[in-house]
C-alpha cells in the first residue's frame, strides 16, 4: 500500500516478506538508533520479527526526488478495553514537517481496519509536534534504574 502526499513524497507499507531487506537498506538507519536509545520493551530483533510475522507494520517515508527513505515507523493494531487502536511503536526520520501532514492518510488506514483510536509511544519532542494534529498526552511512563 502506498499513500502519496505530494509528487515526490509517499508513505509505503512494507510487505512482510520485504521487511528484513528494507530494514537493512533503509528503515534501520532511522529506527535502529531510536530503539537502542529508548531502552524500552522493544528490541531491534523484536521489531523486525513483529513486522515479518504481520503482527506489526513497517512503513517508509520515501522521497522520490532524493531516491531515499527520509523516515520510518512501525505500527501495530491492538484490541483491548473495548477499543481497537493503531499504535505507533517507533517513529524516526528527518524533515518531519514534510511528512507529518500524511497523518490523516494513516488515520484513514486505521479506520479502514476498524480502529477507533490512534496511539503513539514517543519522546517528548514528538508530543509537542503532534499537539497541532490534535494528539493529546494520555499517560506517562516513568522509570528508575536500579543499581
How would you characterize the overall build of this protein?
The chain has a single domain (about 1-135), classed as Gcn5-related N-acetyltransferase (GNAT) (Aminopeptidase, 3-Layer(aba) Sandwich). The chain is globular and about 45 Å long. The chain is about 35% helix and about 30% strand. The protein contains five helices and six strands, in the order ββααβββααβα. It starts with a strand and ends in a 17-residue tail after the last helix. The chain has about 150 residues and is of the alpha+beta class. It has helices at about 20-40, 45-50, 95-100, 105-110, 125-130; strands at about 1-5, 10-15, 55-65, 70-80, 85-95, 115-120. The relative contact order is 0.15. Strands 1-2-3-4-5-6 form a six-stranded mixed β-sheet, with helices on both faces.
Question: What descriptive keywords fit this protein?
Answer:
single chain, 147 residues, alpha+beta, Aminopeptidase, six-stranded mixed β-sheet, 5 helices, 6 strands, 34% helix, globular
Query: Mind describing the biggest β-sheet?
Result: 6 strands, mixed
Describe the strand arrangement of the main beta sheet, using strand numbers. 1-2-3-4-5-6
Distance between termini?
46 Å
CATH-defined architecture: 3-Layer(aba) Sandwich
The CATH class designation is Alpha Beta
- What's the mean pLDDT score? 85
**Oligomeric status:** single chain
Tell me what portion of residues adopts beta-strand conformation: 25-35%
> Helicity level, as a percent range?
25-40%
Structural class: alpha+beta
Task: Output the CATH topology.
Answer: Aminopeptidase
Rg, nearest Å: 15 Å
Identify the CATH homologous superfamily. Answer: Gcn5-related N-acetyltransferase (GNAT)
- The tally of structural domains comes to 1
